[in-house]
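Handout, section 3.2

Students often ask what a structure token actually looks like in practice. Rather than define it abstractly, here is a full record for VTT domain-containing protein. The first block is the sequence as you would receive it.
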Amino acid sequence: MIDLVSLGYLGLFISSFLAATILPFSSEIVLAGLLLKGWNPYYLVFIATLGNVLGSLTNYALGKWGGTIIVKRFLKVSDKELQRSSNVFNKYGVFSLLFAWVPVIGDPITIVSGIAKTNIFLFSFLVSIGKLARYILVAGIFSK
């Protein structure tokens, strides 16, 4: 397996993008590794947020243009995960996107948002706020 920490900013971008998709991945480990090596926390937070938001936009696009059939068949999102995320999205509306970073429900919420055809600018804004806040917190914990 590729050591994403050794790839620096590119490794962080890749891990952040993949972590925002339905794939089980953790960008926080790569971010923490780079922070502990003394890399610039501002650049790292920016790159991690950018990659993670672009990954969420990919989920949004899959939901919007692929619908539930594509999401269930190819992404292997279970009915239970999709229903749980739909319930959260329906209960809290677009503001649930602030929690798109939360494991288990976050990625499906971005897919449900695409299925619901949420305004792309509002989607991007809310997802970015939540993901940025999470990476700032991680950077605050692991910065030298």
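Discussion prompt for tutorial groups: The first helix runs from residue 9 to 20. How would you have guessed this from the sequence alone?
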